[in-house]
Structures are given as C-alpha cells and as structure tokens.
Design a protein that fits this description.
This protein is mainly α. Helices cover 61% and strands 12% of the residues. The chain is built from five helices and three strands. The chain has a three-stranded antiparallel β-sheet with strand order 1-3-2, with helices on one face. Helix 1 (2-18) packs antiparallel against helix 2 (23-40), helix 3 packs antiparallel against helix 5 (141-160) and helix 4 packs across helix 5 (141-160).
C-alpha cells in the first residue's frame, strides 16, 4: 500500500511541478513515479492510512502559518544582531530533548529549526537534537528547549504521530 501511495503522491507532485497535462508529460511522470516508488518505497511512512485523516492536513496548514511567523521573528532577530554595533551574540551548541518518537517527525523538526535563521541542527541522537544557536538566552535546558522547539513540536506531533 505504501508503494502505491508514494506512486500517487509522486505523480501528483510531478504534474503540479510541470503543470502540463499532455500525454508525453504524463508518461514521463508515470515512469519517474514508478522508479521513485520502487527505489524509495521502503523508506516511506509505514502507516499510510494516516495520510487519509483530514485533521492532519488542517494541522499542517496551521503549522505552515506558525513556521512563517517564527521565521519572520527570527529574521528580525538576526538582522538586529548583525546591524547592532556591539553585535550581541552568544553562540553555542545546545542539547534539546524532543518528545517526538518517529524519525520522520524528528527530521521535520530538525529541518524546521535549521530553516529558521539563527539556528542550525547539528545532529539527532536518540531523542536529543543538537542545535547551534546564535544567541543562547538561557542555561536552563527546559527554557531553551521551549524557546527552540516550542512553536514547532506540538504541531509536528499532531501532523506526523
């Protein structure tokens, strides 16, 4: 079932990407989707029935708005630090414990953190993410975990797990 789901999603993505409904384009998209499904199907989500739950799509849309808002705030924060004459930075790597269990959810969280200016995900080991942060605001792990993952983690949990 997961191979079929990956094939359908790949074909839909191909058609949206090319935006042409011609016979050659559909044939190329079908072949590319079959190849993609055969090679990468084993890495696809194991419970594809989660993709049929509409509340996950609602939370994904909410997550997109939260992500855009957090990126805007982080951009302004980084711009402030770059333009400030004293350049107020306290860089360092922090260990953030996540409540997410699936590898896909952890990867989405790590990528969301990396795409937010001022932070870069360095590594994921078990339930811990190692994040390089441009300005460490607190030495308390609970405080900086809430600052870094608080906005993303609860929505990713509703979407993926």
């Amino acid at each position: 079932m997961k191979y079929i789901t990956l094939f359908i999603l790949s074909l839909i993505f191909w058609l949206l990407l090319t935006f042409k409904l011609t016979v050659p384009n559909i044939i190329v998209g079908t072949v590319a989707s079959v190849i993609c499904s055969l090679f990468f199907g084993r890495f696809f989500v194991t419970n594809v029935y989660k993709l049929l739950q509409p509340q996950r799509y609602f939370w994904f849309i909410v997550y997109l708005f939260v992500f855009i808002w957090e990126c805007l705030k982080a951009n302004l924060d980084v711009a402030y630090r770059v333009l400030h004459p004293a350049m107020p930075i306290r860089p360092g790597i922090v260990k953030v414990k996540t409540i997410l269990k699936s590898d896909l959810a952890k990867m989405l969280l790590a990528n969301s953190i990396t795409m937010t200016p001022g932070t870069i995900s360095v590594d994921i080991i078990d339930d811990n993410l190692y994040i390089h942060w441009i300005y460490i605001r607190s030495e308390d792990p609970e405080v900086y975990t809430g600052i870094i993952t608080g906005a993303f983690e609860k929505y990713i949990k509703r979407i993926i797990e």
